[in-house]
Amino acid sequence: MRITLTAALMAATALPALADTIEAPGKITAVTLFPQGAQVVRQVEVKAPEGSHDLLVPGFPEGTDISTLRVSGDGVQIGAVSLISGRAPATSGTESAAVKAARDRLASAKEALAEKEDAVAVIRAKAQAARDQITYLKNTDSQVTAPEQLRALAQMVEDQILSATERAIAAEAEARRAEAALDPAKEAVKQARAALDALLNPAKDREMLSAKVQGSGTLTITSYVNNAGWQPSYDLRLDRDKGAVDMERFVSVHQATGEDWRNVDLTLSTARPGGRAEPGEVYPRLAHIGDPDAPPAPVPMKRSLAASDGAAAPMAEAAISDRADLQMQGETVTYHYPSAVDLRDGVDDLRLSLDSKTLPMEVFAEAAPLTDPQAYRVAEGKNGTGEILLPGPANLYADGALVGQSHLPMVAAGDDLTLGFGPIEGIRVDRRMPDTMEGDSGFISKSNERREVVEIEVKNLTDKGWPMRVIDRVPYSEQEDLKITTKATPPASETDYDHRRGVLAWRFDLGADETKTIRTETTLSWPTDKVLR
Q: What is the reported pLDDT for 174?
């Protein structure tokens, strides 16, 4: 048995000596889910006689960290708190209210099933009586010999047998329907028995909270669990006419804590209490010289996060709201789900609708002919929702049709956001190197000079004009002896595009059925005693 004690939660006054031990179940009433982990709130109704008592609350998942437990009372004074695993201490001889209620439910279910079974037996008896009458009539030995009396007797027997047969068939049909109606009553007995067994024989992988209490009222227990979390998913619908992306957000909720969450008040939080709580450190860099064959100098070891702060990660407070509205706690966003939620241990991956947003975006066609002969729809803008967008899978829609799937990265509020929405089949791009010599496509060579010519042809075969962005590259040099000059026609709109040296981007409008050509001429020269690599 493991018992871990915490400091007394109420140190102002000591509780009187222990009178007896009572047991009361806790009900999970609220859960705050983080992307990884969850804060679980239990409430325990304490009805105790006068004096102090040792309260046992069973059902905590194995491995519960007592450092994350927070216990408060409404009408209940609380002393020292501990977690117990293994053999639980003996309780007083009286059964808990939960066990009594479970026994009553089982007895009621059994009685209801017995009444239905008795009704079926009565119906079966009617059917058997009808069959017995048929047997009797068939075996009756009549002494009647007169023809007319014999005919009358035969007709009477026939009528009676037919009537008894009809009664037997009707009774059998009624019995079948009645037996079919037994299934819910049998299932009710099964569930009631399982509920009682769960209380009388708790799972061995459970832990029990023990607290010294005095008074009657409500005990609220908050704990943190790791095996739970939520992940967003997105439906992103491109609307080119209004220059926006309509974003519908969903969340997938999961938990494998070892217990079912039934009818809980659910809050989703973007906080990450299990993650890093402080920035990394920057260490001095000592430059030194040494012999070429000497071993490298040792690298200073980074001080671990645990060594820097032995305290547990701070718990984020649950944000409870009566409305399904976004809430802010500093930089943390929380969402309160408006209705109660059921989430079973390890078997459910619940998908809930979160909200809808509209993101104003610039929509254009982008082509990178070095790698792909066609253009793609691209929406570019900023995250104007005022909140962080967590990473998650996204379904992409354009013109009302599903065009692809992607994975949205983490995007901070106000940060740049670029989304692709599939190819535009009617915009084709062709990149070629028209000058050739000695089988080397695209350049004319001298001993210390090379000339490269690239032509890019962009065709719009659709019936709509598109703003275009074409991206390509030219060589660049970081050596003084390697000289590179480039001429672009038309001139590039951006050089060193996206902070990448030698990458050029052109922006222009491409009308329906229009073709445009981009040309670059690059000359590389170097000393004759060097080789271009």
A: 82
